[in-house]
Amino acid sequence: MLPPGGRVSGARLARLLGSWRRGGARQGSADLAAALKLLVADGRLPVGTRLPSERELTDALPVSRTTITAALDQLRSEGVVESRRGAGSWINGPVGGGGGITGVDDTLIDLSRAAPPALPSVRLAMEVAMTQMPEHLASHGYDERGLPVLRQRIADRYAARGLPTSPDQIVVTSGAQHAWALVLRLFVGPGDRVLVEQPSYPNALEAVRASFGIPVPVPMLGDGWDVDGYEAALRQAGPRLAYLIPDFQNPTGLLMPAESRETLSAVLRKARTPLVVDETLVELALDGSEPPLPMAAFGGDSVVTLGSASKSHWGGLRIGWIRASAEIVHRLLSTRAAIDLGTPVFEQLVLAALLESPEVVLGQRRAEALAQRDVAVAALREHCPQWSFEVPSGGLGVWCTLDGPVSTRIAVVAQNHGLRLVPGPRFAVHGGCEQMLRVPYTQSAEVLREAIARLGVVAASVAGTGFPADADLAVPVA
């Protein structure tokens, strides 16, 4: 059965493609395939759209039929296009969907996730947890709050950061994303507005939309948060909730200073707008300076804080938490049963073991991230000198300003060269950030050097300067 969808004419497709040739005659088919994928990624060629025949395309585009055939063959092999004799060709799957473009492929270097592998301490903590499991097997295993030992150690960590916290203020969840979904379920109804940073974490934005809320962006300034912009947005939008990442903001890497935390907290309290603070990256300060107090130290009970072990320890643990007032915790627990009945016991025991001496484990993670950040910065300066960026003082990625609005094109073309990237517009609410690209530094130094060398080749190709004569694209991907 053929998919539903309209047909695009050769003349219309030629107008959509615009000036697509980048690498000269030898790269004609590759450039055409990349340009067509860009149209798919942008949604200008939706899934199901019927393509013109090769003969019609030859008449509409200033290339040979051989070039068109080779480009379509490439797209078929990647699952973007499907063809059937007598029925023509059509767009089969979106870029980044379930087709062959960004599916699981161990030959690619994955720079789409800013998430590090586990440290050896995680395996040791698992061994400790195994010895503790028998005493829990006699119970029913459900605990909507989380294990008391883990809640106590999370509370102790807040106290060590200057925010006194009791275990009763902690709810353990299955990751920070799950925590955010629980908070949204409690606070946000259909049509409610949620104030967010622009740019922001894509999955957080998707969670707002999934709750039928409306994300309202407040643009970040080059050096941080625009307090005046938040005041204006609060007056104009009347949001039900605000969501911020003040600690090594994802994706910019910016850290909100204490003065801004105090001022912005006061602005939100005056507007009676609850604030949700995502502290997923808070433990990854890399410059050795004393971090500011948590936002909840300034905003009090109006602040709900989300935490996670995914960046500091390992994403595979799937453990997060919520810190909130006793009243909000009670309301969260009363609604949680509609979503889940608690977090797995074993993983909680693993994290509790890791938090017994937290600075030892976190020191290892910070030292690793610092070394990898410096490798990424040096490689970007060498291979992408036309880009600009600020060296982040923490977090797991570099937010680069490109030499043109080509982020999506770079992400599409990079797949042909063994790289998986997230284009800048994914971090925006309604599009934008097309001149930005996040480069995570969560891979080993060797892989980072290889990945950014390839990224430099892609950037040069997209910029129309062609491939360097000595570029070796056949190097195996680690």
TrEMBL record:
Keywords from the named record = Aminotransferase, DNA-binding, Pyridoxal phosphate, Transcription, Transcription regulation, Transferase
User: What residue range is the signal peptide?
Assistant: none
Record-annotated membrane-spanning stretches: none
Name the PROSITE patterns for this protein: HTH_GNTR (PS50949)
Is the keyword Transferase assigned to this protein? yes
* HTH gntR-type domain segment(s): 26-94
User: Which InterPro entries does the annotation name?
Assistant: Aminotransferase_I/II_large, HTH_trans_reg/aminotransferase, PyrdxlP-dep_Trfase, PyrdxlP-dep_Trfase_major, PyrdxlP-dep_Trfase_small, Tscrpt_reg_HTH_GntR, WH-like_DNA-bd_sf, WH_DNA-bd_sf
Give this protein's Gene Ontology molecular function annotations. transaminase activity
* Keyword Mitochondrion applies: no
Q: Which family does it belong to?
A: In the C-terminal section; belongs to the class-I pyridoxal-phosphate-dependent aminotransferase family.
Name of the protein in question: PLP-dependent aminotransferase family protein
